[in-house]
Design brief:
Structural class of chain B: mainly alpha
Distance between the termini of chain B: 26 Å
Helix content of chain B: 40-55%
Shape of chain B: flat
Strand content of chain A: 15-25%
Oligomer: heterodimer
Order of helices and strands of chain B: HH
Helix content of chain A: 25-40%
Radius of gyration of chain B: 11 Å
Radius of gyration of chain A: 16 Å
Strand order of the largest sheet of chain A: 5-4-6-7-8
Structural class of chain A: alpha+beta
Number of strands of chain B: 0
CATH topology of the largest domain in chain A: Arc Repressor Mutant, subunit A
Number of helices of chain A: 4
CATH architecture of the largest domain in chain A: Orthogonal Bundle
Distance between the termini of chain A: 29 Å
Number of domains of chain A: 2
Order of helices and strands of chain A: HHHEEEEEHEEE
Largest interface: A-B, 35 and 26 residues
Number of helices of chain B: 2
Largest sheet of chain B: none
CATH class of the largest domain in chain A: Mainly Alpha
């Protein structure tokens, strides 16, 4: 059940560039609202997804973000929000060649890169601020 | 950037599959190491 819910969430992000609602998950999988909310809570507890605090709204299904961010990935004319710079690149790793972008918080300018045949241009560096063992201490900050 | 693209592929592959399970800590550290991501920053312990 939890695997089906998680996979549905990921496929919905892939196909709709947005998080599914609890009702959508329930109707798509033929499950009750309560069954889905229990599954969402368990998936969140296992760090498979992240829920917006105090709700069953899907905030993150890494690398996808359910809310607008400064990090995006575009493939075939469709654009997805990512949770961070790594995730914007990772969306292309999952969905194929395209572009990814991030907004510079200091200058408010947007920087963009292209992935073509698996090669990223122009060259750049991703700065990981949080050590791996602390990724989940505060996932929003990470 | 190129390393992170590969990391994204390795880290997130299989998420569309209902049978996907989170890799264990040793597997994650091995994944990092295969990309040259080693040292205390990439340690999980």
């Amino acid at each position: 059940m939890n695997g089906q819910v998680r996979a549905h969430i990921y496929k919905h992000f892939r196909d709709q560039a947005a998080a599914p609602s609890t009702g959508d998950i329930a109707s798509s999988l033929g499950r009750s609202h309560e069954e889905v909310t229990v599954a969402l809570d368990e998936l969140a507890a296992s760090h498979a997804i992240v829920l917006r605090p105090g709700t069953h709204d899907i905030w993150m299904a890494h690398p996808f973000s359910g809310i607008p961010t400064d990090y995006t990935a575009t493939v075939g004319g469709n654009t997805w929000y990512a949770n961070c710079g790594w995730d914007s690149i990772a969306i292309l790793a999952l969905l194929g060649d395209g572009t990814f972008a991030s907004k510079d918080p200091l200058t408010d300018t947007t920087n963009e890169w292209t992935v073509n045949d698996g090669v990223v241009t122009p060259a750049g560096v991703v700065h990981f601020l949080v050590p791996a063992r602390q990724f989940w201490d505060d996932i929003g900050y990470t | 950037m190129q390393t992170v693209l590969q990391l994204g592929h390795d880290w997130y592959s299989g998420r569309f599959d209902p049978a996907w399970e989170r890799p264990g800590a040793d597997d994650i550290v091995s994944m990092f190491a295969a990309l040259g991501l080693t040292g205390p920053f990439w340690s999980l312990s």
